[in-house]
Design brief:
Layout (H helix, E strand, L loop, with lengths): L1 H9 L7 H13 L1 H8 L10 E4 L9 H18 L6 E6 L5 H14 L3 E5 L5 H10 L4 E5 L8 E8 L9 H10 L15 E4 L1 H14 L6 H6 L2 E4 L9 H8 L4 E3 L25 H10 L3 E5 L6 E6 L5 E3 L2 H18 L7 E6 L5 H9 L2 E5 L3 H10 L4 E7 L3 E4 L8 H17 L4 H12 L1 E10 L2 H17 L4 E2 L2 E8 L4 E4 L4 E4 L8 E5 L4 E6 L5 E10 L7 H16 L5
Helix pairs in contact: 4-5, 4-7, 6-8, 10-15, 12-13, 12-16
Length: 571
């Protein structure tokens, strides 16, 4: 506690503005628990950059923690590009203080002699990734906390390829930041170096999105396809309706109550398309309009949730693995139909996502590259293998990327792709749902489930650490009476193969991830979240699906199997 008090008292010095000093003094006098949580650690970069609760303190998002990041990043950029005019692009979402924090970040960059392109209003995260390359920038920043609660905000950093930071740059930048003192931050803007961007980049991004999802679906098929769309009070309202209209989808119904950007997210408990409750209003509108598909995006518009009609005419929510395999299969079929395969193509996913992606790759004769959680690793694959062609890829957490014109998950282009798939299927007397069942009949029915346990604060962090340590040091030999044949520990970089009784090296960066593979093809993974106070458990099982009519029965059997596997854990 002494160290925490010392850190807090420093925030009473004249290095910090009057408002910050006042709020820190209030914590010292009136809220010891909040004080402890605000100063017990420094916010760190996770899988999606820096994300945290807004407020005063080293463990909070505020002008000083972001200012220190930006000053350190400015110093690093100057070291890396000593002979270039350094340029950065900045975007932000609908969250409270996002616009103000984005301006502070712009001010610090400009004060360091760096040219800044900043959107004058909120924009989707994938557009920022696109803008970095389009404007020939060395770096990009998005102010967002994705689907976190309203009290959160965050800071994502992109490099010149349009992908998020990866090693070694992230560690080098963190070292640069940690070597700084708060009084070294340059807050005084050089207005001549700040340029506001809007329509030119918008239109270039829209055209690129349309070009990447141009599959010759007929005008009538698109007009006949009914779509309900909700932005969940986020940034996608600025682009997705426009993209759908330009593509020829005229039957689009927007959930008006959720169309207004609002950092309070007043109509939902969580603006997360993974949560069924978030799409409740959209599903109701879909039934009213007899829509074919519902699409909802998260606040910064990099992830999307989809619901479609099943064979009983009922709207059902799909998970991220399901939409990923169907989108990937569609793209691969298009390549195949055009005889475009040259033998150097690849698709991509993550180690905790469905193994069905590997089956698709084998079927089409392409490579499936796997990375750690986070699209920065998929972007790194594209950068590291320029001789190969990236077709598409995603992860179980409702993110997908089409081609490489954007180097991050992209709900704008993925929304358009989903609608194209649905419209083409409907025109062919099928449906999005039936196309998924056909995939399961061909490749096997893969069923997945994610369990997320929220563990907040210092005690929560310790609980998560203990759970991972116990699993690592005492790995189960079986789950549900089924033997573990392979145990991968990405922290140590070792894999124990119990069939061959050998230990192998994992060719991955070190990460706090554990994966168990069972002899029946099941997979169980555990990892702490990099952006939220959670520990996550991923279970994948699979079986044979002989007919579409047996889907629900087979699915139920696999769900029961998942529950049996999860009974091993004491949640």
């Amino acid at each position: 506690m002494e160290e925490i008090l010392s850190k807090a008292k420093y925030w009473l010095s004249d290095v910090f503005d009057e408002n910050t000093r006042k709020k820190t003094q209030d914590l010292l006098e009136n809220n010891k628990a909040e004080l402890e949580d605000s100063f017990y650690q420094d916010l760190a970069f996770g899988t999606g950059g820096m994300r945290g609760i807004m407020g005063v303190g080293t463990n909070r998002i505020n002008k000083y923690t972001l200012g220190k990041n930006t000053q350190g990043l400015s110093n690093y950029l100057k070291e890396q590009f000593p002979k270039k005019e350094i340029k950065v692009a900045i975007a932000y979402d609908c969250r409270h203080n996002s616009k103000e924090l984005a301006q502070i970040v712009a001010n610090v960059f400009s004060a360091n002699g760096i040219k800044v392109f900043i959107f004058s209003d909120l924009r989707p995260t994938p557009e920022l990734s696109f803008a970095v390359k389009y404007l020939d920038c060395q770096c990009g920043i998005v102010l967002t906390a994705s689907h976190n609660p309203p009290e959160y905000n965050g800071y994502k950093v992109y490099w010149e390829d349009g992908g998020q930071l990866v090693p070694p740059q992230d560690h080098e930048i963190i070292t640069e930041i940690n070597n700084l003192e708060y009084q070294e931050i340059k807050f005084e803007a050089n207005e001549e170096l700040i340029e506001y961007i809007d329509q030119e980049v918008d239109q270039a991004f829209v055209e690129a999105s349309l070009a990447n999802v141009d599959f010759g679906v007929s005008k009538k098929a698109k007009e006949d396809y009914k779509i309900v769309f909700t932005s969940l009070h986020g940034t996608s309202i600025t682009l997705i309706p426009q993209v759908l209209e330009k593509a020829g989808f005229s039957n689009v119904f927007i959930v008006k109550e959720q169309a207004e950007p609002n950092g309070d997210f007043p109509t939902v408990k969580s603006p997360n398309p993974e949560e069924p409750d978030a799409l409740k209003m959209a599903l109701e509108l879909a039934d009213e309009k007899q829509a074919d598909m519902v699409i909802g995006t998260d606040p910064d518009s990099d992830r999307l949730g989809i619901a479609v009609r099943d064979n009983d005419g009922k709207m059902v929510l799909l998970n991220g693995n399901q939409t990923m395999v169907l989108m990937t299969d569609f793209l691969l079929k298009e390549y195949q139909a055009k005889n475009s395969f040259k033998g150097n193509e690849f698709i991509a996913s993550t180690v905790v996502s469905t193994p069905m992606m590997n089956q698709l790759a084998k079927h089409y004769g392409v490579e499936c590259k796997l990375g750690l959680t986070g699209f920065k690793w998929i972007a790194k694959m594209i950068k590291d293998y320029p001789q190969q062609t990236f077709i598409g890829g995603g992860e179980e957490s409702f993110g997908y990327m089409v081609g490489d014109f954007v180097r991050d998950k992209d709900a704008v282009t993925s929304t358009l792709l989903a609608c194209m798939i649905g419209a083409a299927a409907k025109a062919d007397s099928s449906s999005f749902y039936n196309e998924l069942l056909e995939l399961y009949k061909t490749h096997g029915l893969y069923q997945e489930k994610l369990i997320s346990l929220v563990k907040k604060g210092i005690t929560g962090a310790e609980e998560i650490k203990t759970m991972m340590t116990d699993l690592r040091e005492n790995p189960p030999k079986e789950f549900n009476n089924t033997k573990v044949v392979l145990f991968e520990d990405y922290q140590t970089g070792k894999a124990q193969d119990f069939k061959e009784n050998i230990t192998k090296e994992l060719d991955f960066p070190k990460s706090n991830v554990l994966i168990f593979y069972l002899e029946d093809g099941s997979k169980i993974a555990a990892r702490p979240s990099g952006t939220e106070p959670k520990i996550k458990f991923y279970v994948s099982v699979n079986g044979k699906l002989d007919t579409a009519e047996n889907y629900k029965k087979t699915k139920e059997q696999l769900e029961n199997k998942i529950d049996s596997v999860l009974s091993h854990f004491d949640f």
